[in-house]
Amino acid sequence: MPISVVINTYNSSRTLAKVLDAVKNFDEIVVCDMESTDNTVEIARNAGARVVTFPKKYYTYADPARNYAIRQANNDWVLVIDHDEIVTPELRQALYKFVKRPGNIKGIYIPRRNFILDRFRRSTYPDYQLRFFDKESVNWPSEFHSEPEVYGEVEKLPSNRQELALIHLPASINHLIDRIKRYAAADLTNAPNRKVNLLHVAILPFATFLNTYFVKGAARYGVAGFISAATDSIGTFYRHAKRYEHNVRHKLVGGYDGELPQLIADDKREHIPQYEQLLIEEEAERERNFKEKRDSDSNL
């Protein structure tokens, strides 16, 4: 029975060629791209993949495009991988062996090997991912970091056979920083009204560092582990700082996009600091001068 591989992408050129090369012997490869601005689509097409497009809009994560991507596959059995995950030859063989006699099973959890830069992160293994399923029996919610819902029986590949695990390619430092920004944007999208206080920006980042470094065992990986804990901590700080900025932006002179706030009513002006009041009056004066000049020019 044939198998389709589905990969969601957005500006994935750093790793995509390796990922596609590892799945070249599957029956079909579908790349669902969210309007990449680099050469992701060119790499996919050169590798023989069929490329479909899902509008990026304001999304900073792949989950809203998952169902659409899965439905583009021509085969009943679908393997979904990310743009930075490698399928081993042993995993491919195991999946093809399974689909010959799937029985009542509708989905399979696959173990995944994660890395901190150059170090295999044993403490996170097997990190099971539900990525192989009958496409008519699955629904993938659009929420950030959601998991697919399979309607039917599922089973797990044995974790003691690491050759069957997906290999999660390590992120570069630039990618880690970019991911921090994307995750912060996704967090705002999914919970826009959550409040932020001093605890969130002063204590939680430090707690995140301790949790990653000691509880999750990053300390055993030397410099790579310290970098991982530090970036996790920075991500926590950045996420809550962006949320705080989001919550108070209507109070800022210049607003969120550099324009004066539109919600300042005359009856609330006494609550505005004096320097803000002066800025508002100066802007109003410039607007009057602009209108007068425009009216004068139109009469010439």
Write the layout of secondary structure elements.
Layout: E1 3-9, H1 16-22, E2 28-33, H2 40-46, E3 50-53, H3 63-71, E4 77-82, E5 85-86, H4 89-100, E6 105-110, E7 112-113, E8 115-116, E9 119-120, E10 129-134, E11 138-139, E12 149-150, E13 153-156, E14 166-168, H5 173-190, H6 198-215, H7 222-248, H8 274-298
Parallel strand pairs: 1-2, 1-4, 2-3, 6-13, 7-14
Antiparallel strand pairs: 4-10, 5-14, 6-10, 8-9, 11-12
Helix pairs in contact: 5-7, 6-7
Q: Could you list some keywords that capture this structure?
A:
300 residues, alpha/beta, Spore Coat Polysaccharide Biosynthesis Protein SpsA, Chain A, 2 domains, 7-stranded mixed sheet, 3-stranded mixed sheet, 14 strands, 18% strand, globular
Give an overview of the whole structure.
The protein is α/β, with parallel strands linked by helices. The protein folds into 2 domains: 3-168, Spore Coat Polysaccharide Biosynthesis Protein SpsA, Chain A; 173-251, no CATH class. Helices cover 41% and strands 18% of the residues. It is built from 8 helices and 14 strands. It has helices at 16-22, 40-46, 63-71, 89-100, 173-190, 198-215, 222-248, 274-298, and strands at 3-9, 28-33, 50-53, 77-82, 85-86, 105-110, 112-113, 115-116, 119-120, 129-134, 138-139, 149-150, 153-156, 166-168. Strands 3-2-1-4-10-6-13 form a 7-stranded mixed sheet, with helices on both faces. Strands 5-14-7 form a 3-stranded mixed sheet. Strand 8 (115-116) and strand 9 form a beta hairpin. Helix 5 runs parallel beside helix 7. The longest helix is centred in the C-terminal third of the chain and has 27 residues, at 222-248. The protein is globular and about 80 Å long. The termini are far apart. Residues 257-262 and 264-273 have low confidence and may be disordered.
